[in-house]
Every structure is written in structure tokens, then in C-alpha cells.
Amino acid sequence: MQHAVGSPLPPPHESGHGWSPAGQPPGAHHPGHQGPAPHQGSAPVPPPPPAPGFTPPGPAVHAPQSPQPAPVPPVPPVPDTTGHVPLPPGGPVGMPSAPPTSVPDPATTTIAVLLIGPAGAGKTSVAKYWAEHRRVPTAHISLDDVREWVRSGFADPQSGWNDNSEAQYRLARRTCGFAARNFLANGISCILDDAVFPDRPVVGLGGWKRHVGPGLLPVVLLPGLEIVLERNAERSGNRRLTDEEVARIHGRMAGWYGSGLPIIDNSQLDVPQTARVLDDVLARSIASPPNW
What we know:
alpha/beta, elongated, 5-stranded parallel beta sheet
């Protein structure tokens, strides 16, 4: 039977069981074919039954949130006091004062001592021993040690006394003086050793008085020439001088006799004995400071 082009196709033949002759449900879609729209008011199609063993998911259950812990206040750091000890500045050292009714004990008094003597007199050995055996903090400041801080360009007086060696000696004395003032300002006694000549007061005692202060107590250590030559022979390096130089220095040191400074002849004394004599001399110097 012929139909006009563009007219709708007739509905398919429906059987009593609702299946088409091809065995497909009436609402099945063919590729490229739009199935008939459902009639208005028709009953909704129920969902297919679940597969065996399948449990439908229930409503989402959220785990109860635990209460947030209270914020812990930050622990303040332990204050680091290392390196924060206040250091009073070092000023000129005044004359040590002693109670008028008692004899001062140099072993417990904060003092500054200048130990003078020629090369080989034992200044360094006595100064070290004296500083180590005091009952109060004491520093030993060696002029030669400070002078030898200069490595490149070190001016050795044995090679000839010139402006460079003169300047390095003065720098070393000034550095030792600053160190002594700082030690004393912080309650630490000190003993310095230097070969100070009596015929050069400006760069000798005068320089030490400017660098340290009028409270510096000078003591001369002057053994015999034979002892000085013997001790100098045991030295090595640039601290060992020729016998002629040692004799010349020793002769110039003799000028301290009659200067008013205390002099210790340690020709027959070992280091501990000399240190004990030094304590006795310092006790008298504290009670009656020398005029220098």
C-alpha cells in the first residue's frame, strides 16, 4: 500500500503480550531512531531490582570531629648569658691603698707589677711562677710574647736597631698597657716583664706609667753578670743574644742602683725563692710606694 512522501508511518502492530514480532519491547530504541514519547499521565517505571549481594549505599555518615586542642603558649627560650658579662673599661691604675693598721698582703691584693731586668735575669720564669701561685686571679703579660705577634715584617733588634724595631717595641708596650688596665679594671692582677733601661726614662718607666698608670709597682731583677751569661746561653731563637750584647745590657741595668726602685739580686735564688722575695718587696712597696 502506497503512502504519500512525508506522511507519518502507521503505528506498528501490537500483540496481546506487548512484544513486537522481532521480540523487542515496544519502547526499544533502534540506532538512529527516536522512540515514541511516553504518554502524559502514564505511571512511572520502577527501577530495576538490585543484584544479589548488593547493598545500596546509605546516607553519608560523617565521623564526629574531635575538639581542637587548646593552643600551647610558646615556651620562652632560656636566656643565654654567655658573652654578656659587663666589663668595666680599663682606666689608669691608681696607687694601691693599704689599711693603715695592718701590713698589706701582696698575695691577696689586686696590683700591677712591672718586673725589670736584663736578658737572662729570669724575669719571665719568675713572673709566670708568681702569677700562677697567687691566691687571687693574676695575669702574666710578657712584652716579648706580644712583640712576637708580628710575623710578617717582624723587626728583630739583633739585626740592627732601627725605626721599625723601635715602633714595634712601642706598640707592644702600649698593647701590654691596655691589657693590664683591662685586667685590673675587672679585678685581675697582672705582672709585666720588660728590659727597661734607666737611661731612657721617656720610653722606659715613663712609657709604662702612661700606659698603665701611676699605681704600677716596678721591681728590678738584677743577678750577677756570670749568671745572666749562663742563662742566656740556654736560650734559642731570636731571644738568645751574643755575650757582648748581654754584657752591654747588664752594664746599663746597673744604673738602677741608687734610683730608689727595689732591686732583687737573685744570683743565688731559684724561681720559688725569688717569688717569695718579690712578695716581701711588693708588701713594702704597697705600704710605701716608690717615688718614680
